[in-house]
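User: Sequence recovery, please. Input:
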């Protein structure tokens, strides 16, 4: 397994550090939210590698958060296929399966296009401003080839699309795939990916949504998934 070393710890706030105009938009988080966000980032960025056996007590000490919020966060991660419960082994971080990732992308293309179009049609003025901030952050991440900034912006972008699209059923389906997709990317991107291009493709969707351009958002979404499929097949081939 190829790992990526990252020294920086997870964010303390709900939004990306340095994004202009977001300081007053930080939502209140429950302890379960904080535990989930921290664990999801540590699993996705391979600080907790695939196959690692974990426990509520160990994760509670690692995060400095009580066991009940950690238990609830783990339940969310199980639903997202990032953690599995195995008989006689306990709680295990799931392995990365390239073939499964291609199946994820088959579904993701259709749902992501739909959500992007809905976001362009339904986003509020405040949400459009946040899409503009994410696009600017993606441009900066592309210019610096900043992997961790890109990963965090990608998560914020995904959450903002789910929030602004106004369709809870599509959002629930997409939420189950986001973590798997981001972790697969993080594992392989240094060998097979063009991080600046990926950041620019995300920025193109964000700007189309900001401009209320549903057709443009759909095309930009397809362009992103085209690239991700090419990237995923390169890791297998």
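Assistant: Recovered sequence (237 residues):
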């Amino acid at each position: 397994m190829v790992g990526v070393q990252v020294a920086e710890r997870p964010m303390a706030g709900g939004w990306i550090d340095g994004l202009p105009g977001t300081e007053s938009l930080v939502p209140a988080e429950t302890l379960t939210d904080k535990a989930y966000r921290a664990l999801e980032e540590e699993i996705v960025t391979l600080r907790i590698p695939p196959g690692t056996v974990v426990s509520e007590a160990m994760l509670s000490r690692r995060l400095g958060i009580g066991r009940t919020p950690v238990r609830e966060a783990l339940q969310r991660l199980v639903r997202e296929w990032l953690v599995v419960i195995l008989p006689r082994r306990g709680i295990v971080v799931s392995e990365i399966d390239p073939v499964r990732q291609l199946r994820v992308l088959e579904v993701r293309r259709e749902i992501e296009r739909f959500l992007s179009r809905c976001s362009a049609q339904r986003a509020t003025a405040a949400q459009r401003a946040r899409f503009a901030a994410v696009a600017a952050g993606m441009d900066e991440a592309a210019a610096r080839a900043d992997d961790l900034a890109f990963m965090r912006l990608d998560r914020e972008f995904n959450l903002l699309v789910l929030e602004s699209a106004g369709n809870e059923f599509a959002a629930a389906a997409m939420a189950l795939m986001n973590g798997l997709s981001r972790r697969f990317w993080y594992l392989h991107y240094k060998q097979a990916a063009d991080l600046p291009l990926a950041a620019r493709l995300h920025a193109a969707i964000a700007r189309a949504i900001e401009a209320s351009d549903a057709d443009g958002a759909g095309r930009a979404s397809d362009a992103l998934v085209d690239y991700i499929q090419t990237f995923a097949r390169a890791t297998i081939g």
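Residues 101 and 181 are 7 Å apart (CA to CA).
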